[in-house]
Amino acid sequence: MDRKRENMTDYYLAFDVGGTTIKYGLVDKNLNISHTGKVATEKNKDGHILKMLKKVTSQFKNEYHLIGIGVSTAGIVGKNGEIAYAGPTILDYRGTPIKAELEKDFNLHTNVVNDVDAALLGEKLAGNAKGYTSIYCVALGTGIGGAYYEAGKMFSGAHGTANNIGWTLYDVKTKTNFEQRASTLSLQAKLAPLGIDPIEGFKRAKTGSSQEKKIIADWSLEVAEGLSNILLLFDPEVLIIGGAVSKQGDYLKELLEKQLKKILPPNLCKTKIKMASLGNKAQLYGAIEKFFD
User: Fold this and answer.
1) Do domains 3-113+281-292 and 128-277 have the same CATH topology?
2) Residues ≥6 apart with Cβ < 8 Å to 19
3) Nearest CA to 273 among 245, 244, 252?
4) What is the pTM assigned to this prediction?
């Protein structure tokens, strides 16, 4: 018997395209993720990313009943599901017509969304932002990105370049922006003289080690300065903190809330702060969130 006929469950194929890897998995209508894997981007040499999206899709389509494709990706996504802008970490990515190519080759509805937007949408679909209608998400990692959802849609500005919060708060004296002072890369640099990484730094801080505690507190104040602008400008119902550092859970949440009290006017901002709950699955869920509207 044809194996494809044995696997007639409806699936969405979700991708998460990053700077170094393309993660993927099948998502069923009950939001179960299975058959996950990853392949290298090869820095997009010779259009490698689009080639891999097609190759993986072809393999899954031959064995499973696909009803849609979702792609979360680094870069700014244009109105037609193409890459409108991409940074230097992914070579020759700008202009890649992901949606058009996948729909042409596989005759499946395809949704393409920026990876930070996808993180927010994933948390809205299946995580800690579920049930909220006004959501801001901040992805804290080697860089800092933002995404805003309000009144049933994502807001990315007239030219699609809004929420680039990492480039805000430029300081002319130090010649640094918010991202350079508050990313996890910045925290890593501050902990480097101690010979430890952020994971170990948080571990020691939680056990009361004063040196690591102070370094993380100072870093969290830098983070809070950026978050305060978001709260004052957008006043979302919930602010989701994403990125690997979100695994620090209540410890980081309470620390940020404490630092925000030093910055914000008393009793003005009512936004709830929550840590992202889906980890690496957030972008996969976000890639296919549109199919569940």
Assistant:
1) yes
2) 41, 74, 89, 90
3) 252
4) 0.91
The residue assigned the tokens 């890639």 is 287
> 106: buried, middle or exposed (CB in 10 Å: 19+, 13-18, 0-12)?
middle
Q: What residue type is assigned to position 156 of the chain?
A: S
* Cβ count within 10 A of residue 208: 8
Residue 133 host element (H or E): none
Distances (CA, A) of 293 to 4, 116, 240: 28, 19, 20
Q: Choose among 38, 99, 39, 106: nearest CA to 66.
A: 106
Q: Could you count the other beta carbons within 10 Å of the beta carbon of residue 120?
A: 32
Residue 232's identity, in one-letter code, is L
Separation between Cα atoms, residue 82 and residue 95, nearest integer Å:
6
Superfamily of domain 128-277: ATPase, nucleotide binding domain (3.30.420.40)
Residue 22 phi, psi (nearest 5): -115, 110
CATH superfamily of 3-113+281-292: ATPase, nucleotide binding domain (3.30.420.40)
Q: What is the tens place of the pLDDT at every residue in 187-209?
A: 999 999 999 999 999 999 999 99
Environment class of residue 54 by beta-carbon count within 10 Å: exposed (0-12), middle (13-18) or buried (19+)? middle
The answer on pLDDT for 35 being more than 50 is: yes
67 burial (CB, 10 Å; 0-12 / 13-18 / 19+) is middle
- Residue 160 has what pLDDT? 83
Q: Which two tokens stand for residue 174?
A: 């130090």
Give the C-alpha separation, 11 to 288, whole Å: 10
For CA atoms 21, 26, 27, 32, give the dihedral sign: negative
